[in-house]
């Protein structure tokens, strides 16, 4: 008998019939893997952006399909995830022209393309295709990504920051997420190793730390100061973790912030760099929203630029910066492209990172191509430049207007306060839930902000994520809503949200 009690049965063929019954029917099959014996770290890991509210939304979607009049709304509005094109955002023409030609290079020999594609897209595609070994986006590449594309990206970083970047430090990834996982996996040896993360945070970090069996060392962003990041808070949280016997190895900073939308000032960034330098921590700079800045008085500066401007170099400061094709004004998140720039690590550690990347062979080539386009868009004077910049500006200015409109509406709601989104794609309003709602949530066995979000979904079809999924100051309640629905739909969404909120408050405040 095998350990799981079924191997002898499996060893016999099902034609082994006893009194007309197969042997396998006598002992019910018990799958070797079940919920009680899978890796407990998988159970521990949570990812609210696709959590229970979204699962409920999917059920409602099915219900609507079967009977469109069964619910008090006629469509689901997915404001739970930063997925711009799923909500109607159009891709950037130049990027798609180059992508199409790279994926079907046979077109490059056809005269007709000159009437359909812009000349600079054709030229760019030809140059990219000829730099890819085998001219094939269907082939594996070097595990760090195609060298010529990494070189373009390094030049893009250099142009952005004014400091040099080395293509050998660039690892192309399927979105920023695999890069984050790789670095966390590299640094965490056991539960005693910790990584400092902002609270609220994007749950990729808490999930990855849980999966890799480390400890999340929280530091809190200050909601009353526009989700400010205070170095005094970093210091006291680090000291507390060290006193608990944790080896803190790295600090994560998300700038612009998700879910909080703040854009750090250069002065603040300098203090963060100095803190990491003094405490000998790796700085993990999540900069996927670097193009999404809306506040007039704010601008994005990369941590690489800040560290270099302070005189820190490859030899005395460890910094990993993450970027992605998923956000910005391009929103190509389904294509999965990203990079991490790994600086200030010994070459033997970099070789280990390369080995880890090699285990997955390479990131997808279409994502690599797109990442190179994001870091090297059309320039003034190129045929596509005018269209490119008008598409880019239209998307970014509309996102800015939507962020403002939604924040204003949220701030008008009773017991709700909301910081503006200086950048990124979300608002994270705080709700003071009345005692009655807290009790009703408890009776329903739900976390209070999940209860609010579920009621909102049931009443309006608007899908948002409870603040508890991002963690928050205990006793405070929030939700995260994207600013991505089309601008013309915003007034309807705001009206639905407002009327739901009023009736919710009426129901529970009495
Ligand atoms: N870092 C941050 C801060 C993010 O918000 C996201 C995605 C990622 C990394 C990873 O994205 P990619 O792997 O696609 O590059 N944001 C998720 C979110 O909060 N909504 O949509 C996805």
Automatic annotation (TrEMBL):
Reaction catalysed by this enzyme: glyoxylate + L-alanine = glycine + pyruvate; glycine + 2-oxoglutarate = glyoxylate + L-glutamate
Residue ranges occupied by any Aminotransferase class I/classII large domain in the UniProt entry: 134-495
One GO cellular component term noted in the UniProt record for this chain: peroxisome
Biased composition (Polar residues): 7-20
Region (Disordered): 1-20
Pathway terms, separated by semicolons: Amino-acid degradation; L-alanine degradation via transaminase pathway; pyruvate from L-alanine: step 1/1; Photosynthesis; C4 acid pathway
A Pfam family of this chain: Aminotran_1_2
Family: Belongs to the class-I pyridoxal-phosphate-dependent aminotransferase family. Alanine aminotransferase subfamily.
Quaternary structure (record): Homodimer.
Protein's UniProt name: Aminotransferase class I/classII large domain-containing protein
